[in-house]
Design brief:
The complex is a heterodimer.
Chain A (H helix, E strand, L loop, with lengths): L1 H7 L26 E5 H15 L3 E5 L14 H5 L4 E3 L4 H13 L3 E5 L10 H8 L2 H4 L9 E7 L14 H4 L6 E3 L4 H13 L4 E6 L2 H4 L1 E5 L11 E4 L4 E5 L3 H14 L4 E5 L2 E3 L3 H11 L2 E8 L4 H13 L8 E5 L9 H4 L3 H12 L2
Parallel strand pairs in A: 2-3, 2-4, 4-5, 5-7, 6-7, 10-11, 10-13, 13-14
Antiparallel strand pairs in A: 1-8, 6-12, 9-11
Helix pairs in contact in A: 2-8, 4-5, 10-14, 11-12
Chain B lengths: L1 H11 L11 H4 L9 E4 L5 E3 L7 E4 L1 H26 L14 H10 L5 E3 L5 H6 L4 H8 L33 H15 L5 E6 L6 H12 L4 E7 L2 E2 L2 E2 H4 L14 E5 L3 H18 L2 E6 L18 H11 L1 H11 L5 H24 L19 E4 L6 E5 L1
Helix pairs in contact in B: 3-4, 3-12, 3-13, 4-10, 6-13, 7-8
Chain lengths: 358, 394
């Protein structure tokens, strides 16, 4: 995948912004020593191994995690760390998250897995009302910062209504939790370790399409990537594209095509959706004057709306064109119609051209 | 179905070498023969907070042959779906029901099409039981227009409004509170009908089930919660997910009955009993002890969490179709050849329907936007650049 090459170029933070909100001892650049080629689920697996190794009070639980999980993200954990730390739960999402909150409230690192993001809704109340507000309403006496909820999200080509959803927008509306979405194996390992060690409850969505498909050189050592810091993964001057997760590879392909028409695109990976890195995006928009946001979730009320409103607020006079959003359609995630629903490369390309030629 | 049986029996009359004991002229009207036969169920019922119904079930040759044919059809259909999935004609998910046919067939025999059934995603055979056609099944599986949900639902979302089959649900356990709502409406309309809300042993641990049970018991709803216990929630054995795998007792204050789900007659008896109970006394739980031969879905080989010996053991000892076959043969209701002919015929029917279903076209792209809301409250569809409204679709 082309994204791999882009990361290899190490674009870094040349814009001149330094992460102001490093909440953990994280390195923004990762040294490449002992890097091994691996896919997304292996990278996540490594991260989990490291998390459990470095913290004796870390637990991994969820449906079917013991044998390795339906996507193999938890392979080998039960054998290595024992059934007291890596265990299966019955089929009850609300119970899993509630249980995780309790475990975290006692100072443990609870890494809960929800088998598919589409099933997270029974746990929504626990996340929104319990996890997000615990520290706030107890006046900082208690907190469930050790809670990390992992869930595979996003389209996979044949998932249909209940194995393809992108529910990140629902959670972005909840102050008190963080929402993090990696774009590639290397990012995933670093971000997941940051999420687990972050003293706030985090919902970590993993793009399931990339579990096997994305292959990258991932360093074998323990490293963390900063949360709430967006990354410019492609430099450009004509238009800023903002996205996250699997959608970035689609956007990148559109950028490459747009390049052929002489449009220089800047591509930003948001990484953390809340609290999101407004400064990086704003700086980029001040440079280019145009912005396009793309995500798989339906357009109305999707997180693109928040980014759009914020950018307009902050950069109104600089904008040369309206903020463009290329997103999923306002329908339930369809089965046979998936190719029409998805914000494909051509849709993004069309929007790039229209915005640039506004 | 009666007619097709007659066809095969009339061809048999040419065979002059048949022994006299087969009594040709007496055999022919089997398909309409309703002389009662009493059969004992394989095991007695175990009950919780109620008196178990009798082990002796009344049936008749017509019913037994219908059971045989229907189950053979369901079995063949599921196996054909397996091949279609592997040939990539069916995409997405496909959860097969083979092994559990007796539950679908026995339940139908005890109720009417005015009673409601609602189930989870392993719904192909339940749909057939409710009167769905093979064409609707295969077309829907392949995502074609001729499917029961017009190709927009897929394997997990079969529905049939005219026979009160409320589907077809992907989220585990979510259909049970819905089922109790259906029961409430039935009680309100006073039409002496009940709702069967089916779920699996994995779903039995969902919180919403207990909420639904409490509400049904509180308001005396004619809801029958049927746990199709095939002993594995995906790959997790029941004893590893549930402190108490006696799902029929989970209702606590709600009575329950444990039934051998591989015995269609036991299922029929239990459902009949449950319907009578629900109409008088409110909710009841039925636990169907059944087994699925395939894995959880087509991506699950089904052999990593259970031994092949276990699967073949169940197939030999408890297969629902074999049980009915033995019953039919021991009561001399049909010959082995006749039963084999039925199976051959069923196989041909399935193959022909698949060919027909393949002809059906995919849904029109504009159908992507239909039925998001009620008609008239449409979805706006934008062009790729989102600069102008291209259409407001129904």
């Amino acid at each position: 995948m082309a994204l791999r090459n882009i990361i290899g170029k190490r674009i870094g933070n040349g814009i001149g912004l330094v992460g102001r909100r490093s909440l953990s001892t994280a390195t923004s650049d990762v040294e490449n020593r002992n890097a091994k080629s691996m896919n997304l689920y292996s990278a996540i697996n490594q991260a989990l191994h490291l998390a459990l190794e470095t913290d004796p009070r870390a637990f991994v639980f969820g449906e079917d995690v013991s044998f390795g999980g339906v996507f193999r993200c938890t392979t080998g954990l039960a054998d290595r760390f024992g059934k007291a730390r890596v265990f299966n739960t019955p089929l009850c999402e609300q119970g899993i998250v509630g249980f995780g909150i309790g475990l975290a409230a006692m100072g443990n690192r609870a890494i809960a897995e929800i088998q598919f993001a589409d099933y997270i809704y029974p746990a929504f109340d626990q996340i929104v009302n319990e996890a997000a507000k615990f520290r706030y309403r107890s006046g900082n006496q208690f907190n469930c910062g050790g809670l990390t909820i992992r869930a595979p999200y996003g389209a996979v080509g044949h998932g249909g209504h209940y194995h393809s959803q992108s529910p990140e927008a629902f959670f972005c509306h909840v102050p008190g939790i963080k929402v993090v979405i990696p774009r590639s194996p290397r990012q995933a390992k670093g971000l997941l370790l940051s999420c687990i060690r972050d003293p706030n409850p985090v919902v970590f969505f993993e793009p399931k399409w990339l579990y096997r498909l994305a292959v990258e050189e991932v360093p074998e050592h323990d490293y963390m990537l900063p949360l709430s810091k967006a990354e410019v993964i492609r430099q450009g001057s004509d238009i800023t594209l903002v996205g996250w997760g699997a959608q970035l590879s689609i956007m990148e392909q559109a950028c490459i095509e747009a390049e052929k028409d002489g449009i220089s695109c800047e591509l930003i990976d948001l990484k953390t959706l809340i609290p999101w890195d407004k400064e990086t995006v704003e700086a980029s928009v001040r440079k280019t004057g145009r912005v396009l946001i793309s995500h798989e979730a339906p357009v109305t009320g999707g997180f693109g709306a928040e980014i759009s409103a914020s950018i307009v607020e902050r950069c109104f006079l600089r904008l040369e064109a309206p903020v463009a959003r290329v997103c999923g359609l306002d329908t339930p995630f369809p089965l046979v119609f998936e190719p029409f629903y998805m914000p494909s490369k051509n849709k993004v390309l069309d929007a790039i051209k229209a915005t640039v030629n506004y | 179905m009666a007619l097709s049986y007659l066809r095969s029996s009339s061809s048999r009359s040419v065979n002059l070498l048949k022994p006299l004991s087969s009594s040709l002229p007496l055999r022919r009207p089997i398909s309409t023969d309703t002389t009662p036969i009493t059969v004992e169920t394989s095991v007695p019922f175990t009950s919780h907070q109620c008196d178990a119904p009798s082990r002796s079930v009344e049936t008749n040759p017509k019913e037994l042959l219908t059971f045989f044919r229907d189950m053979a059809l369901m079995r063949r259909m599921e196996i054909a779906a397996d091949s279609l999935y592997k040939a990539k004609l069916i995409r997405g998910f496909c959860h097969l029901y083979d092994g559990q046919e007796a539950v679908a067939v026995g339940m139908e025999a005890a109720i009417t099409k005015k009673d409601c059934i609602i189930t989870a995603y392993r719904d192909h055979c339940t749909f057939i039981g409710r009167g769905g056609t093979l064409l609707e099944v295969f077309a829907e599986l392949m995502g074609r227009q001729a499917g029961c949900s017009k190709g927009k639902g897929g394997s997990m979302h079969f529905y049939k409004k005219d026979s009160n089959f409320y589907g077809g649900h992907g989220i585990v356990g979510a259909q049970v509170p819905l089922g109790c709502g259906l029961a409430f409406a039935q009680k309100y309309s006073k039409d002496e009908t009940v709702t069967f809300a089916l779920y699996g042993d994995g779903a039995a641990n969902q919180g919403q089930l207990f909420e639904a049970l409490n509400i049904s018991a509180l308001w005396d709803l004619p809801a029958i919660l049927v746990c199709e216990n095939n002993h594995y929630g995906m790959g997790t054995a029941e004893w590893r997910a549930a402190k108490s795998p006696a799902y029929y007792k989970r209702g606590d204050y709600v009575p329950g009955l444990k039934v051998d789900g591989m015995d269609a007659l036991a299922v029929k008896q239990a459902c009949k009993f449950a319907k009578e109970h629900a109409l008088k006394n409110g909710p009841i739980i039925l636990e169907m002890d059944t087994y699925r031969y395939h894995g959880h879905s087509m991506s699950d080989p089904g052999s990593t969490y259970r031994t092949r010996d276990e699967i073949s053991g169940v197939r030999q000892e408890r297969d629902p179709i074999e049980r009915i076959r033995k019953l039919i043969l021991s009561h001399d209701l049909a010959t082995e050849k006749e039963l084999k002919d039925i199976e051959k015929e069923v196989r041909k029917e399935v193959d022909d329907t698949i060919t027909q279903a393949k002809e059906s076209p995919m849904p029109e792209p504009s159908k992507l936007f239909t039925n998001v809301y009620a008609k008239g409250l449409g979805v706006e569809s934008f062009g790729a650049d989102r600069k102008e409204v291209r259409a407001t679709l129904p």
